[in-house]
Amino acid sequence: MAWLFVSAVLWLAGFGVYIGRFHRWNSWDLLAHPLHLLSDVVGVLRELWAHLSTVGLAWLMGSLLLLGYVALLLLARVVRDG
């Protein structure tokens, strides 16, 4: 169950990378302009299947983040076990 949660969060982070990179939103915009950000995100989600590059980029970034997470876990295990 934990891996499902981690995977979902990292793929959502990949979507966040897409929103930041192509829609030019920053993390502080969540506090400064929450309704504008929400409107933009809903607009992207409505047209999600019309723009498969959005899905592909979010999936790719999420997968790379997941790969990095697994690599760090394995490295920590190797260091711990000596």
Which spans of ≥5 residues are poorly predicted at pLDDT below 50?
A: none
The radius of gyration computed from the alpha-carbon positions, rounded to a whole number of angstroms, is 16 Å
Q: How many structural domains in the coordinates?
A: 1
| Terminal Cα span | 28 Å
- Tell me roughly what share of residues is in helical segments: over 70%
Main beta sheet, described?
none
Q: Quote the average pLDDT.
A: 89
**Helix- and strand-based class?**
mainly alpha
Strands, count: 0
The dominant shape is: elongated
The succession of helices and strands, N to C, reads HHHH
- % residues in beta strands: under 5%
**Helix segment count?**
4
Gist?
The chain is mainly alpha-helical.
What does this structure look like?
This protein has one domain. The chain has four helices and no strands. It has 82 residues and is mostly helical. 83% of the residues lie in helices and 0% in strands.
For the structure shown, list the relevant keywords:
82 residues, 4 helices
